[in-house]
Write a sequence for this structure.
C-alpha cells in the first residue's frame, strides 16, 4: 500500500487553494494565470462531482468481527 | 482586670481558630469516611453530619457540587466525602465543605481509579502534547462500538451525512460486563491492522451506567499507542473514563464524535463555491489589469495621431529645404552678376570696336592673324578685315 495513490480530496482541495492564491497574486504571466484558472475550475467541478458521487456509499460500511481473526 | 490588654474579642478567637485550622495542609483536601445523618437539602446547599460510632462532623455541600452527585444521599448512607475543613467564623464552627460525595463501595472503586489515573498521568500518558490532531479529511474511520448499538447507527448515519466519501469499518465489541475490557482490547488490536484515518470509541447514552470497561488499564495503555488519532464518546459530560483522558479527542455523544471525525460536506461545498468565485474574480482582475494597461498604451499620442511622430522631422526637413533653396538662389544670383560684368568687360575688348576706329586686321586664308611681314610670302592671299567689309589681296 506504500505506492503512490491517486491524489486525495484533501490534496486536490489544497491545490485549489494554492491556485486561487497564485492567480490572486497577479504577478504571473497571463498564459500561466489562464492555465491555473482552467486547472482550478476543473478541480472545482471534479471535487463537486466527487462529493455528489459519494452519495452512493451511504448506508454501506464494513463490519470486521473478532471471530474472523 | 478589665483593662484592654487582658481580653480578646469573640471574633478574634474565631478568627485565630480559622487561621490555625485552615492553615493545616491536610485539611485543604481530604476524604472522610462516615455515615450520613440529618441530611437536609436546600436550594443552594445541603447540610448534613458525617458520623461514626464515636464522633460527628458537620458538613456543607454547595449546589454546584450537588449538581454532580451520582446518587440521592439519605440518612444512613455509608459514604466517602471529599473536601476541605474550614471554620465558619460567625458561629465558631468547623465543618467539612464537601466537593464530592460517593457511596462507600463506589467510593473505593473511585479511589482505585484515582490512583490509577495518577499513575498513568505521571507516566505522561495523558499529556496534552501527546494529543494528535484528528484528520480533517479522513479516508477511513474505524468504529469500536456495541454490535448493533444505537451508538453505531448514530455514528454511521452522521458520518455519512457529513462526509459520504469516507469508508467506515466497524469493529463490534461488548462495551460493558466482565468480558468487555478483553473484547474492547481485541477490537482495538484488530483495528490497528487496518489503514484508518481515525478510530472512534463510542457507547450510547441510556444504557447502564457501567463505564468500568473503559477504565481498564491494559486497554488505556494500548490505546495510548494507537497508530491513528483516536476519539472517545463513551462517558457523559461529567463522567470521565480513563479512556477519555488517553484519546486524542474526547466528546460526550456519538453525534459529536461524528462531527469531530469528519468535515461537513455542506461547508466544503460552500468553500468550493467560494473558491470558484475567488478564482473568477482573480482571473477577472488579471484580465482587467491587462486590458487597462493596453488601454493606457493605446491612448498614447503615438497611437492617437501617428503623424505627430513625424512632425518634428517634417519641420526640420522643411527648414533644411528652405535653406537649401536660398543658398542655391544666392549662388545663382552671384553668378548672374559676375556674368553681366564679364559681358561688359568682353564688350570692351571686342576688336570690332577697334576696326570702327579705322584699323583693320589682316588674316591668312586659315584665319590666323598676320602680325608681321615675315608671316607672309609672295602670292599668299590675305584678307584685310575692316569695320564694314573684307578686302582680299595677293602679296607681291
Amino acid at each position: 500500500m506504500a505506492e503512490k495513490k491517486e491524489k486525495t480530496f484533501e490534496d486536490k482541495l489544497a491545490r485549489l487553494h494554492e491556485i486561487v492564491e497564485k492567480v490572486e497574486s497577479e504577478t504571473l504571466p497571463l498564459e500561466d494565470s489562464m492555465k491555473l484558472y482552467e486547472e482550478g475550475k476543473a478541480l472545482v467541478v471534479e471535487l463537486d462531482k466527487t462529493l455528489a458521487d459519494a452519495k452512493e456509499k451511504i448506508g454501506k460500511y464494513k463490519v470486521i468481527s473478532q471471530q474472523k481473526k | 482586670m478589665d483593662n484592654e490588654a487582658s481580653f480578646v474579642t469573640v471574633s478574634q478567637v474565631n478568627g485565630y481558630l480559622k487561621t490555625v485550622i485552615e492553615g493545616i495542609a491536610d485539611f485543604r483536601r481530604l476524604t472522610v469516611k462516615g455515615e450520613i445523618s440529618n441530611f437536609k437539602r436546600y436550594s443552594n446547599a445541603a447540610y448534613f453530619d458525617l458520623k461514626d460510632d464515636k464522633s460527628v462532623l458537620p458538613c456543607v455541600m454547595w449546589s454546584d457540587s450537588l449538581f454532580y452527585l451520582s446518587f440521592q444521599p439519605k440518612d444512613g448512607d455509608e459514604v466517602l466525602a471529599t473536601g476541605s475543613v474550614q471554620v465558619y467564623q460567625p458561629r465558631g464552627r468547623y465543618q467539612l465543605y464537601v466537593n464530592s460525595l460517593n457511596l462507600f463501595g463506589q467510593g473505593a472503586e473511585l479511589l482505585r481509579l484515582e490512583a490509577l489515573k495518577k499513575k498513568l498521568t505521571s507516566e505522561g500518558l495523558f499529556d496534552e502534547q501527546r494529543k494528535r490532531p484528528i484528520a480533517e479529511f479522513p479516508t477511513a474511520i474505524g468504529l469500536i462500538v456495541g454490535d448493533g448499538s444505537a451508538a453505531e447507527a448514530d455514528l454511521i448515519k452522521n458520518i455519512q451525512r457529513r462526509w459520504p466519501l469516507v469508508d467506515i469499518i466497524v469493529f463490534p465489541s461488548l462495551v460493558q460486563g466482565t468480558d468487555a475490557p478483553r473484547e474492547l482490547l481485541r477490537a482495538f488490536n484488530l483495528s490497528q491492522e487496518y489503514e484508518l484515518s481515525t478510530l472512534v470509541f463510542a457507547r450510547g447514552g441510556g444504557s447502564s451506567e457501567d463505564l468500568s470497561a473503559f477504565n481498564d488499564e491494559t486497554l488505556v495503555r494500548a490505546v495510548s499507542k494507537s497508530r491513528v488519532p483516536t476519539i472517545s464518546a463513551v462517558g457523559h459530560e461529567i463522567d470521565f473514563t480513563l479512556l477519555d483522558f488517553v484519546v486524542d479527542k474526547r466528546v460526550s455523544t456519538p453525534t459529536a464524535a461524528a462531527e469531530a471525525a469528519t468535515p461537513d460536506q455542506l461547508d466544503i461545498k460552500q468553500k468550493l463555491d467560494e473558491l470558484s468565485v475567488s478564482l473568477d474574480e482573480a482571473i477577472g482582475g488579471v484580465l482587467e489589469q491587462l486590458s487597462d494597461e493596453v488601454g493606457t498604451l493605446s491612448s498614447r499620442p503615438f497611437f492617437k495621431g501617428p503623424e505627430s511622430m513625424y512632425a518634428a522631422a517634417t519641420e526640420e526637413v522643411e527648414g533644411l529645404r528652405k535653406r537649401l533653396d536660398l543658398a542655391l538662389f544666392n549662388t545663382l544670383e552671384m553668378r548672374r552678376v559676375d556674368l553681366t560684368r564679364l559681358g561688359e568687360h568682353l564688350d570692351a575688348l571686342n576688336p570690332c570696336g577697334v576696326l570702327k576706329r579705322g584699323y583693320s586686321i589682316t588674316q591668312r586664308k586659315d584665319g590666323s592673324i598676320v602680325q608681321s611681314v615675315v608671316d607672309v610670302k609672295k602670292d599668299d592671299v590675305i584678307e584685310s578685315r575692316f569695320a564694314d567689309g573684307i578686302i582680299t589681296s595677293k602679296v607681291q
